[in-house]
Amino acid sequence: MTRRRHFKTLDDIERHFRNGFGCGEGSRYKPWLLVRDVPSQGRSHILWSDLCGREHHLLSDHECRYFLIQLWIGGLTDVRECYPLPLSSTLAIASGLGIRHPVYPGTITPAIMTTDFLLTRKSPDGKAELLARSIKPREKLSGRGSRRVLEKEEIQRVYWRLAGIGWKLVTDADIDCILADNLSFASAAARIAQVTADKAGQNNFMATARCTCWTSRPLAHTVRELSRLIDRPFEHGVNLFKLQVWKRRMRFNLSAGKLHMTEPLWEEPTFEECAAG
Question: What are residue 49's DSSP bridge partners?
Fold first, then answer.
């Protein structure tokens, strides 16, 4: 088992930066914290994205849901999770605000503060636009302990304002959980090489799916029949269905209900005109 990294001294911090953590872009980016480094209060996730060509380390269910939705919406050119802020900047901002700067537990070493996501989006004029997003559950923002949480969020807000980059605090109230859970169900197929490489199967599935009624029978029954018609095993057909949903080639309101193989779709889908691939 890979051991957690230590964060006790400034030498530890410098060593982690030298080793590339919190640095790079695209496939070369390494988040400042990995799943193994943090005892997550929720569930942590490691998800691959074709967009960046690497695994993403997501430290909560809320982060995972937000990440999936942003990938599916599209328009992004890069996603950097757990992005570190310069220590000199956050120390100065905390001092100016009269806020105690975070330290690593059991030490007096100032902690590297991170923003959950730094997104790169292509603006309408074709230029790269950076967006910073912090993800927090609503219960952390009120009641006991919330003052300290809000203080740390304020340090982030001021840092990104000074950097001229849009920052937003996102809570679970802003995240469509039904959509995200459906995307989690569908996105798994995008990581199965046998499915993504089966271009003929994808095209045949789409051609047959256009002539199919999706709201009258359980999804498993419909996909089983399609799989038979295109000469693919049932499990392969299920993954072809998931892939078309994830790639937005097969479209219906993913916020209107939760996908279950034992139930029909709640509305007839529309289909992308171009061939898969």
Answer: 54
Half-sphere exposure of 50 (CA within 13 A, CB side): 12
- CA torsion 152-158-160-162 (nearest 10°) is -150
Q: Which residues pair with 10 in a beta bridge?
A: none
pLDDT mean over 207-231: 96
pTM: 0.92
Report if residue 277 sits inside a domain. Answer: no
Per the structure, the complete domain to which residue 94 belongs is given by 10-174
CATH, residue 34:
3.40.1350.10
Angle at 263 between CA 262 and CA 269, to 5 degrees: 130
pLDDT, position 248 = 94
**The token pair that represents 250 in the structure block:** 């097969």
Same domain, 138 and 212: no
